[in-house]
Amino acid sequence: MKEVVINIFQLFHTYSQNYALMGVTTVPQTESVFKMKKFRIIFVTMLLLAFGKSFAQSIQVTPGTDLPTEVIACGDQETFKFRVYGPTVADEKIEVQLPSESEYISLVSPASGVSVDDTDLKKPIFNIVSALASPSNFIDIEYSVLTGCTIVLDPELTHTLVSNPTINKTVDYPTVQYSVLEVNSNIVPSSASLNVNDTQNFTFTIGNDPVSTNAYSSNIYAYITHSTNVEVTYTGTGTFISGSPSGGMVTNIIALTSADIATVGDNDNKFEKNESIDITIAAKLLGCPAGGGETISYRAGYGACIAASSPCLTGNTSTSGIALASGAPELYTEVVKRAWPSPSNSDTAEFLLRNDGTGAGDIYNLSFDLGFSNGGAVYTPSDFTSYSWSNFSVNGNTVANSGAQGSETSFQFATDPDGAGVGLEDLDGDGFFDDLPVGNSFTLTNELTYNYLVDTANDTACDPMYRGYAIVRWAHEYQDQCGETTTLDVPMSNSESWRPWSFYNMQHSSLIENSSTGSSNLVAGSTFDFQIEQRSNASISTLNIAGLYWEVHYTIPAGVIPNGNGTWGGQPFNLVSFNAGTGLAIYTSNSAPANYRNNLAYDPIIPLQVDPACAGSFVGSIDYEYHLKGDATYEPIDLCGTGPTFTVSCGSPGPSVCVSNFSLDRTTFGFTDNTETTSVTAATTGIRTDHVLEGDMVRWHLEVDVSENNLVTLDALLEYDTKDWFGTQGDGGIKALRVEYQPAGGGASTVSTNLSQYSYTANNAGKTNHKVDLRGGDFTLTNPSIGARYIIDVDLKVSEDASFTDTAFESLTGILASSPATSLLNPTVHTCNYLTEELGMLEYYDTLRTDLRQQSTTFDGCDVIDTGARFSVARFSKIGDLFPNEFRNIAHLKQVDILVPIGVDYVPGSSLQNTYPNQTNQPIADPIITYNFEPGFNKYSWVNPGNWTRGKATVSWGIKEVKFQVVPNCNVSNWSYSGERFGISILPTSEMEYFRNVTNPGRIVNPARRDIPRPTQYIPLSYTLSSATPTVSTETNAAIWDVQINNTSSGGGILNNTWLAIDVPNNNIVPTLWIGATQIPLTGYGTGKYWAQIGFVSAVGLNLEIRSDNFTVCDTDTFNVTVGQNCASYPTDPDTGYPVTGGSGNYICNTETIPLTLTTQEPSINVGTTLGIPPATYDFCSIVPYEVSVNNAANGYAYALSADIRFPIGMTLDNTTGILNYNGTAYTVDPAQVSHNVATNTYTVDISGITSPISGTNGLPGVSAVASNEFELTFDTSFDCDYVSGSKIGTQMNGESSCGDPIDPSQGQSEIKTNPVNVTQVPSNIQYAMTVTSDDNTLQACSQTEVIDVEIINQGVTTDGSIESIVATIDDAFNYVSGSFVTGTNGPAGAPAVTVNAVTGKRELTWTMPNGIASGSSISFSFEVEVVSPGDVSCTDYDLNVSTRVQQSIDCSATGGATCPAINSITSQEDEPITVEKSTLSISSTTVNSTVNGVNLDITAGFSLENTSLIDLASGTVVSAYNDVNNNGSYDPSDVLLGSKTVATAIAAGNTINDTIDFSVAMARGCNVLLVVNTSNNNCICDTAETGMVCNSDLNLTKVTNNSNPNQGDNIIFTLTVTNNGTSVPTNIVVKDIIPTDFTYNHPNYTTTQGSATFSALREFVWDLGGFALPIGDSISLTYTVTVDNCGEFINQAEITNSSLNDPDSTPNNGN
């Protein structure tokens, strides 16, 4: 039988009775304060009517007497007591059910007669050995209990007689006082910046701030949570428990016992209110943080004092942060000693390596690699096999080297090579001393060998030595503390690099000069100089190797002899020896000063003389070779060449024909300046006629003197090398010929211009010949004799498109003029003499030569790069400007089109047009840029608007340039040239325009496309982003994060155009950005997105703060901080990227992003309330103070505080008496801050509105704050006539956390029972035990009544019906069943009076207490209740409360109070739960029949209703159809009612009925219908039942052909028809037809009225009807035609592959 509680009113007797004052104390936040205890004193009574027994049996527990007023969670054990009344049998057992967070410890008393089964510590069973004979016999049992730390709301303690469970007693568990341990948010330090493997101590403070001063904890648990990248150690008091990694996180625990706690506070073993303990841990950073930094979180707990329980975590989580220490490695290298190996001896080099990094910039795993570069910036470790490195050592300790030519070492020293704290160290513990701390340095020594392998015979072969720049270069590689690798080629620098052995600019030529004849036509005794013009340079090494010098060996033709010592760059160049037989003359530079001897840059000049005794004429040249001397083993021979041709005439051996007055001169000239107004002539000063341009006219002038008779043949011959100087025109370039014959002795001359006498042979035995026949043509009949003369002038045109392989200014070589002849006397061809001449030609490039104009081979960070495109119209000449005194041909660029890698951005306004040699830099407009013209390239285009300066095209180095500047952008690593670096591509659409002799029309010349990469080194910018406070745990409405931009660029590079973005995904944090005290404006660029342009970040980095005092983060949220940088510009915004010029798009750069976290610390509001001033009593007529004590036991501030004080009926709060006491100061409460809800008698006090330090946005501080975290609020209260003594006062503190989140309602609660009023003549010993039971504790709402049995045992004085009553209270949806009252033993006289309480709304049944019932007697009766409003109750439990009450008249008029005829006090009460039952239904959709009615469907929907409960359901069930408006498949109030059906039949329990409902719905919504049985119009069901209406279609597909037996080649027609045989209207129908390969379908020959068809390569013909709705009963068709290709039997199969509706008898797209 279940218990039912009934209130019994007891009217006051007139005799005197004293009430014991019930003490009132404060409680923790989730506990009630002194609720009225439920006296469930249960008697097994034999009622005369029901049981036939007259004795009682009960268990009695008196709270406050038998139980402690309060217990301390996980504190000391407390003693509990209960009394058992007889009669009982021997070994009677009492089971005590403790709350879940308590456990039995031991039996205290009696010492004997009671045993305990404590198998279950939460449910001990006490065995009473001896029987208790009668109701007057009893036994008291005491036992000890320990209470756990987990908060249990409203805990109870139940005592049950095992033999008769109806005999039980449940009372409230004593008030539990809980500790509130909190880690102070002020961790010391709050953050730290560490190097990897560094350790930092963090100290945190744990305090205890419970609401009660009595609360304490006997142990402490400190939880330290961090990532596996941090190692935490602890050496202090207590036990350190290392946690196991889980998900990358570790939680360590420090456990302090009571003995450990004894050192804290007052030195006892209790951690009490306002005591604190400091704990210091050591945190080691094991690696670089994956995000912005590491967070260590701290939280405190206590407890774990009962079996199988865990410590209770309390308070908030506090945090400290670790950031990676800023700084960057910077390896400085310097050449201490350069190596100068000779060809036979190696030499040592010394390199200083020093870490000039900052902060945390230690270098790890250093390696060093030596190599060379050939004049560029790219380090090449292995391309010069002429050199090798060896014998690497540090401080005399050798270290292995490897790699190409032994150039690499990784410093794998097993021991320290240079001493601790000096140079290399083992910082990372890998066993190798290959790490270099900041500030440390060491010297690396190694040996360089020059591998010039000449054969040991020292033969005379001209073996070329190494030619090139061969500059020593080196690279280093290392890692920083995060393992990031830096590989850097050391930038080329003259101060750091050297060329150990090489030659460069290896160009040399020779010439005849300072001739005594004034030309290269020499005679006996002529003197002349032979000069080797050097453009070669020796390496610095040859200048640093002692004893090296040069010998030049000249081979001089016979007839020429040395004429003394020469000069070597103006210094002595002495003749060593001359061998007349071989012609070998040896000159030495050893005679020159030491700093001249081995330098190839000097031109050697030797004086020569034609032997005065020479005979005959000859053509000669001089061979030469350089010999390097001074090395013990080798004598390299290099720079071998042959000098120019010269002629020597030493008299004639016999008759012949001689030539004279030979000239080869230009006859076309330019202007004096670029105005083109004044022409120059050959007579103009400074004009050189021996320099010509392509297309110029040249006159060959020669005079032939006849000194022999009887000539048979005679020619004028011009010879030179084999190049086509004139020959590309086919006629040898001849444009005019004039030959004048002057006979001997005078007479008339004969002149011929007959070109047929001229002939041209391009290559005649290695010579090009121009020949004029002087005995043929017009001179056939002329018979010249001695003394006759021929004067010859031939006008030749220089070739305009010569086939020279390297077009440049060149001299014709081997020019000779002669007059070969035969005669009758001497029929052999013979020549009297030769004459030579000089002629040089500047030939333009038909296809422009192009090059990259780049000033720097090293790009450093954001340095601006000067670059450009160079176009050469002529090549460098040692002679310089060939036409210095005349303005000849000009050229200018008309258009320049180049490709530039996307890794750089153009610098606006930087374009210049430049003409050489006068370096005219003309600003020009910016190019038109076409982005991504080719993958990886942008196209730059400049077009000459006509004002670009024209430049001479006749200079020796005719160059036109467009120069501009670029700056690296974030794609700088993408240079676009594989294996190289930066460069450009010149496109063939570029144009150069030549103007011939100025006035001639221009000629456009285009270059060939040329990709021109240049070995270039980029020293990148780098940076990291970190935060020492990645997780900010704030207790207020403000938060600050430290953010560091760490510039890790090598060489101190500056980060240009740096920006920072903040992305708050949940848009719940409004940030601000600060540098020191300066706020940086943030710009929004999307929801929750902000960014700022920061500017430059120097090498030292930048520290910023992100702040927010505007956020709605509750608990924890994360946002991202991103930093970007680009040398070129800022982005449009961080999402859009960087704009390209002209607005044609954007590009994206790499960025650094870290997450930052905000954790808002919650407040923890604890409330204690007191009525009156304990321990004094108060009188009903008195003014009684009511105090609310509040503290905030967590770190988080509490805002918007208010108190809801719910008084019982009959109590009044005086809003004019309010006082707020805070930190020792009283603040008056304005009555306006107090509102009153009369209906509930609740007073709401706006605490934040009271003028005080905690008002407004200040909030109530948490325990970590310096300011006080508690206050008291007091008001005066009074009583009126409706007051019931023992009623409860409830107080609820409301508030918000810093994020605006409401405080958990379970916090801030206090509920106390009002103290009994101290009045006179009230009995002091009215006491009842009550049992209330119902039949089965269930009541069917629509068809049943429930019998309630009440038994009351009088355990006090004799009853007095004049002042006592019995009251049963229940929800007003229930009522007393008239006539159901049955009295029992000593029962009330009749049926109850039934009323509804106007205030509570509860229904009250009141009986007068039977009079004169003696102590120990029982009172019993029964009655029935029923549900009178089924719609107002739900299927849940309702409490029926039965109480006994006394009533008293009070007169307070003497004190100005009320006079009350009847004041009620509750003397005992008991509750009985009654479960309301109703039927439960399930509904399912069975059938659907629909017809189209315009745009609607008229539907008859079948459904099935099943009664799944055990309760019959009467007829009248309402079924409704709804349009599921939001298509969520579930009924909600927004759905539209379509129709309802009331079921006419009843539904028995477990049965099912079927029925239909009719309604109309829009056609498009026919499949969005719900069938619902709603509780709102079905009062007799528990829950709403619903189902989606079935929505099916029945589609039928047919396929026919017009010819099932076609012939090959016939066209046949297929017809597909889809029919809707269903009851709903489908859409999205798709039909697929597989056409056999033996048919040809010619798309799109199909016909249909709906949809479209496609034909795929898979031979799938797909007919898609789209949104077409096929009406019920309608069909739609499509026809298409195919051609039969082959013979045979074929199956053409089609199927429906999709439909919006289910088809119950088919499955779409299943291949059938």
Automatic annotation (TrEMBL):
InterPro entries: DUF11_rpt (IPR047589), OmcB-like_DUF11 (IPR001434)
Pfam entry (one): DUF11
Domain DUF11, first and last residues per copy: 1594-1710
Protein name, UniProt field: DUF11 domain-containing protein
Lineage, uppermost ranks: Bacteria, Pseudomonadati, Bacteroidota, Flavobacteriia, Flavobacteriales
